Amino acid sequence: MVHQLCLISTIEFSNYIQTISTLQAITGQVPTSISTYSIISKPINVFKPKFEPGKVNQIEQFFMKSITTWDEDININDPIIDKQFTSKLFTGENKIWTLQIADIPIAGKNQICSLQNIYESTLVYNSNDNSFLQFLNDLGYEVINQFWNKGLRFFYGDIVIEIYKIFIRDDGQQEENPDDMEGIQKSDKITLKLLDESNGFQIKAFINVPKSTDLDIINQGYKDLVKLQDNLKGLVKFEIPDRIFMDSRVSST
Amino acid sequence: MVSAVILNVNANPESITQFHDELSNELPNLKGNWNFSFKIFRNNQYSIPPDKADSLEVSDETKFLHTLSPSYLKESCISLINKRSSALFTSLINEEVGDLSSTLLTIPDNHLHMGATTGLNDQFDMFITQKLQSLWTLRQNIRGDGGQIYELENGNLTIRTSNVFLHGIFKGLLIEVVVDDHVVEKHDKEYLNALFDKITKNYKIPMGKICFDLLGKDAFDKYGDLCLQYSEILNF
User: Fold this and answer.
1) Is the pLDDT of residue A160 over 60?
2) Chain B: nearest CA to A201, how far in angstroms?
3) Could you name the CATH architecture of A2-45+59-175+183-246?
4) Which residues pair with B177 in a beta bridge?
C-alpha cells in the first residue's frame, strides 16, 4: 500500500515552456518521460450484502485501474496510434500490467494536501492462451473505459512532479472518415483526442509514503509540498483535488 | 520444467528424518530452506451475476481463486482462477534485485520509469484481501514451514520438502518434484506418469496423493501448473 500526499493544478499551453524551464532550474534536472495506457474496469457482478441489524457492512466494491506502459512515439498535436497496437495490448503475452485500487482521500478540515491510500499489484506473466482481458473477466471485472497519458516527470527531493496530457479515444473522428481506398490504412488506426480540449497540461506534485503510520515522513512531506507550492505560486496554483471526484467505490444502488 | 506435488499425510518425525537421510545419501546440492503460503479464496456469495441479481439472494455459482507464494520465488505470488486462468504477480523491480534478476521474473525498470506503477506493490493475495473482498473471500490459509531444497542429477532434478500446516495443525509432508525441461521428452500423461514413478521409486519418496496435471495440453505454464497441483493436493 502507498500513502500518497498530493497537490494538483493545470498549466496553460502558453505557460508550458516557462514551467518546464523553472522546474529544470529548481530541480537541477532534465525531466524523464512518462507514458502510460490505462483501462478502467468495474465489477461484473452486483454486490448485495445481507443486512444484519447491528452489523456494519464494511465491504465495498471498487472500480479498478489497470496500467501499462505506452510505447508509442506520438506527436502531441496530432495523436494517431495503430489500432493493432491497442489490440496487441489486450492479448499480449508478455505485457506487464499494474492493477490499482485507490481509497477515497481522507476527509478533514484545514488540509494541506490530499491524502490517499493506493493499493497496487503488478502482473508480470499470464498464461499464453489467456489474454489480460480474460484474466480481468475471470477475476470478476469488465472494462468500461480507457485513456492514455503522456508527459514529463521531475524529482525534487521526495516530491515527484508530473506534467502530462490525457488522451481519450476520438470516436467522432472515425465516423467522419469512412473507409475508402485510402481509408483502409486509416481504419488500422485509432484516433485519439485530448481530454482537455484547451490543449493545457495537468500538473501533479506528490509524495509516496510506504507506510501510512510513518508520521515523521508524512509531516516532512507536508512541509516540502507547502514549500514547493510557495516557490511556484507565481506560475502554478497548486490546489487540493476534490476528494469526491476521487471516490472509486461502486455505489450499491 | 515439469513438476509434481505429493502430500504424504502419514508423515511423522521419524519418517521425515529417514527421507532426508535417503536424499542426503545421494550427495545432493543443498539449496537451503524455503517455505510457502497457499490461500484458497471462494467467490463472495453476495456477489451475484447481473442477470440473476433480482431473483437470487446468494450466488448459485461456485468459483475458486488459489494463490501460491513460495519463498524461492521472492516476493512473488502465483494466482489461479477457476483452475483455468493463471498469472504471476511480483513486487520486485528489476533494477532492485541485481544478480537475482536472471532467475526471477521481475517488473521491468521501464514500467516504473514510465509511470505505470508507484513501485510500492502489494502481494496479490494481500491485494485481494484488502480490496477485492466483495468478490473473493478467504476460506483457507495453508502454510508450509521448515522446507528443504535438494538439487540432484546435476541440477536436472529439484526436490523440495515442506511441512504443511492448516490453522497450525500439521497436515503432512509436502514434496515438490521439479524436472528440468531438457530432460523431459514428452508431455503426455503416460510419459509423465512413468517419469515421476521412476523418480519417486529411485529416491524413496514417501507416497501419498500425487498430482502432475497440467493446465494446458501443449503449452507449458510452469507457474500455473504448479499452482494447479497445489490446489489438487492441498484440498482438505
Assistant:
1) yes
2) 17
3) Beta Barrel (2.40)
4) B4, B159
